[in-house]
Amino acid sequence: MTAQAPPRAAGNLARRYIESHPVEAARVLERFGGSSAAAVLEDYPVSQIAPVAEAMADHVAADCFAEFESELGAKVLAALDLDEAAALLRRMDQSDQTRMLGAMPREESEQMGRILSFPPGSAGSLMDPKVLSVSTSLTAGEALEKVRAAPHLTLYYLYLVDNSSRLSGVINLRELMLADAKTPLTEIMVAWVDRLLATADQLAIVEHPGWTEYHALPVVDSNDRFVGAIRYETLRRLESQVTTEAPATNLAVSLGELYWVGLSGILQGMGQAVVAAGRGQEGRDEEERERDDS
Fold this sequence. Notes:
The protein is built from 15 helices and six strands. By secondary structure, the chain is mainly α. Strand 5 and strand 6 form a beta hairpin. The termini are far apart.
């Protein structure tokens, strides 16, 4: 007879497994569905739930979150990447989505609501809306103080906006730190910066030429108002998704090119044959005329 581990020991083993192997744990929990997964995970700390939830298939994770208490669900969503959290919220029923957003701090709820307002897969739905922007009316020293107060909201660049929140320019952080504190930002900023429309689709994001110069691209709405930024990490993830569709497209293009190249060759060959045949016929007609004359 096989001895069974005491419940407490089994629980400790499960906890260690989930903590050390979140992806494998997600695969196991997926087999039992969202309700069962929620029953297992709800007693774990947020730091352990989040990696498992992120590794789950979205539809199972959404069902799992629907079973969580609002406060727990909101905390776990806050621990996820914004685009991942938005993807899960989109899969929830409207009532559960509203419940989770209502349990978030007001600022986070508004930011998430902004992301959800854009079409799925668009730049607006994939951006980080918490990226720091400052007014063009500031000096370099004043801008640097804002960066130091919120370093977690700052990317590689500092985006500048006018009084209507329209994107006006960008400054490299290194240049900002080297500038004299009293220098107006307008004197050291790059007045034009590549940007993405919030409605841009994934292919437009991946193929944007601005990635050759920047590690992040600002996102603007239809009125050119700054609403967030797409991080380089998001670009790399999108590249892997887009390239999964590319082989079929590339194959179609290649086959099309081969078809036209082949057809052109055939037509060219036919043209040459017709010309040659015409010349040959002309030669035979000339020979017949010479024989008749003789």
